[in-house]
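Collaborator request, handled under Task 6.
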Amino acid sequence: MESGDLQGLSELRATAEAGDSEAMVELAEELVSLGVEEEAEAWLRRAVDTGSDEAPGALGDLLESQGRLEDALEQFLLAIERGDNSMHIDAGNLLDSLGCSGEACAHYQAAADAGISQGLRNLGLLLAERGTLELAEEPLREAVELHDTDALVLLADVLAELSRPEEAEELYWQGLQADADSAVKHFGVFLSEQDRDDEAERLYRQALEEGEDPEIANQLGALLRRTRRDAEAEALYRRELDSGNETVLLNYANLVQDLGRDSEAERLYRSALLVPEPLAHNNLALLLASLGRNAEAEHEFRAALDSGDSLAQVTYGEFLLEQERAPDAIELLQRALADGHTDAHSPLAEAHSAMGDPEQAGEHLREAVRLRLEEARLDYGIFLLDQGRFLEAEVEFRHEIEGGGEESRLGLGLALKAQGRLSEAESEYRILIAGGVWEAHLNLAELLRDAGRYEEADGEFRLAIEAGDESARQPYEEMLRTHA
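Structure tokens returned to the collaborator:
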């Protein structure tokens, strides 16, 4: 600190010591910026005791940053008692993070009643996150009427979810014209969902040229990857890195890993951690696990959890399952489920199956089906197959296929074969083979072998092995020995 700054701080301290509550708050803010939080807290508490209207909110902010949430909430409520209605927003945000959404809604509504548009916006956002989109629309419209430009984008998102695309698009355009935060990103996602990737790409490129939010590069990169233009995505990430945009490091590492360049991906993940980008811990852990470096992987999974990445509870749990540590996996996955990660249901089912508890496993899979989670019916169908409940498995596989899950035809073929319906099973495998699914060659080969059609089976076994399926070699050689 320079001498002039020291003198200014000394003068501020003298004014605070003389009993000036505004100086106490200002001194505390300076101390926080210098990392002297203990003394800052002491001055803020002294200012609170003098009856300052400003101090409780500042003290609440400090306590919240330290993770002392109950103490922070107490100060926010005190600030509200002293007439600072803006603290309803802080109290609502904190309560929402604690899972007290009902109380959070009440505070947001109180802020709205006091004419604070952010209260309406946060209320609408919370209602939307709870899945009550119709209820979210009204407060967001009121916020828009109060000229809250950020609410424009949120309202557009809600209308898009409510299948009202024309109204949504009009609001996205208004958000762009008003320079609303995230308008480009949200509008781009909307355009892509409307199968208008070309328009989304032009929007992103224009925003990048104008030097807007550096995160736009990640949106554009994701679009390029989704449209199978990995080389363009990599060139984009390289340009952005060269220009100092480190926000692309994580996605660049993901791309490089997907391209099989593991050493380079590891280097990029470690560079991302230096930014810092805490989410890189989980991705690095998955890479290390795939390379068999399990001790290092576990270290990164734990670092991911320590950084607050709750999604890592699921991936770490799956890793523990692969390490045959089902009890540890169950404990971690239950925590993930409590934190709202419904994708923990399927690995939890696998863990309970490994522990010899098919009843619990079935409950988790049925809940996953009820929640319409991705591939839930496929997982449930496989579970039913393992339980010998072939007709029920058939039903689940057929539902999954109707929803576009063509890979479920493998399971359907197995369920049909187990019921003695060999011609139907054969048809399913041939549909997959015609679609380029080489894994079906082995299934078809085994079906033909079991039906005594050895010459045809021979051809399918050969095709499976030629496609790289080494698991086909042993049953093929066994068939040759017994049916030469």
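The cover message to the collaborator said: "The first helix runs from residue 3 to 17. The two ends are 88 Å apart (CA to CA). Please let us know whether this matches your experimental observations."
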